[in-house]
Design brief:
The protein has 285 residues and is α+β, with helices and mostly antiparallel strands. The mean pLDDT is 85. The chain has one domain: 2-Layer Sandwich (Zincin-like), CATH 3.30.2010. It has 11 helices and 4 strands, in the order H-H-H-E-H-E-E-E-H-H-H-H-H-H-H. The termini are far apart. Helix 4 packs across helix 6. The chain is elongated and about 70 Å long. It has a 4-stranded mixed sheet with strand order 1-2-4-3, with helices on both faces.
């Protein structure tokens, strides 16, 4: 319930902010929301705006939704090891020290998030600490630090923003064509058919767009595995991936799942944010 409420409140806030931005743009430039230019502005504002607001709020959302405890001062040997390991890896990759956190979950997982390379969060689950060796955990941390160093959060946000813009723009253009064909110009502001077909086209194009985003996400996972292997050794990274074969299903959601070491279920490999574990293991050989 906490995650649902947080999701609804966050998206409501985003919609209100973007709606205000659109109102200002339309009033200032005198653009009609039904013109090609107006539709493009709407598509760009909601396509990129939502993605970038989510990116800038990603650390806060991650902490709130997972209940992650940020290690400000290590209280145990395990916490001290986590902080020192991430610090060493961050220095090795030339980035500022990420915040390090632990969240309570039986799954073996970890994720990285944050708006930039030098403002990030690396979090590990309690299940990872209980079920992985230090060598395996070190490899997982290196994988997440590689995500940060590669700028994957910003890259995926840009890709998501581009595809979102195309989805919204094409859906509204096609919905307008269908609406004009069925109703003519009787309802200048857009009839109910416009809104129905706009929604239908956004769903259809959104499915296609998710395939594109998932493809880049899988490529990014291979790159993070390679980066981890270069930092700690391929054997440690392969061992960590082998351990994930016996994992609980991931409880992470959204961008946190995309940047987690382990992924959730997917109806098809085309929609999966992560490649199959065997493919990732073989790529390291």
């Amino acid at each position: 319930m906490k995650r649902i409420v947080l999701f609804l409140l966050t998206n409501l806030a985003v919609m209100l902010v973007l709606g205000l931005v659109l109102s200002v743009l339309f009033a200032f430039f005198g653009i009609s929301s039904r013109s090609i230019g107006g539709i493009l502005v709407i598509a760009a504002v909601f396509g990129f705006g939502g993605s970038f607001i989510s990116l800038f709020m990603s650390k806060w959302i991650a902490k709130k939704s997972t209940g992650a405890y940020v290690i400000e001062q290590a209280r145990t040997d395990t916490e001290q090891w986590l902080v020192s390991t991430v610090a060493e890896q961050a220095q090795q990759r030339g980035i500022k020290m990420p915040e390090v956190a632990i969240y309570d979950s039986p799954e073996i997982n970890a994720f990285a998030t944050g708006p930039s390379k030098n403002n990030s969060l690396v979090a590990v689950s309690s299940g990872l600490l209980h079920n992985m060796t230090k060598d395996e955990a070190q490899a997982v941390l290196a994988h997440e630090v590689s995500h940060v160093a590669n700028g994957d959060m910003v890259t995926l946000t840009l890709i998501q923003g581009v595809v979102n813009t195309f989805v919204i723009f094409l859906a509204k253009i096609l919905a307008g064509i269908v609406d004009n064909f069925l109703n003519g110009d009787e309802e200048e502001g857009g009839g109910w058919t416009y809104f129905v077909f706009d929604m239908v086209f956004q769903i259809l194009f959104g499915i296609l767009a998710s395939v594109i985003v998932a493809y880049f996400s899988r490529k990014r996972e291979f790159a993070a595995d390679k980066g981890a292997a270069e930092m700690v050794g391929a054997n440690k990274m392969r061992s960590a991936l082998e351990r994930l074969k016996h994992n609980h299903e991931s409880r992470l959601e959204g961008s946190m799942m995309a940047f987690g070491i382990a992924s959730g279920r997917s109806i098809s490999e085309m929609f999966a944010s992560h490649p199959p574990l065997d493919a990732r293991i073989n790529a390291l050989k």
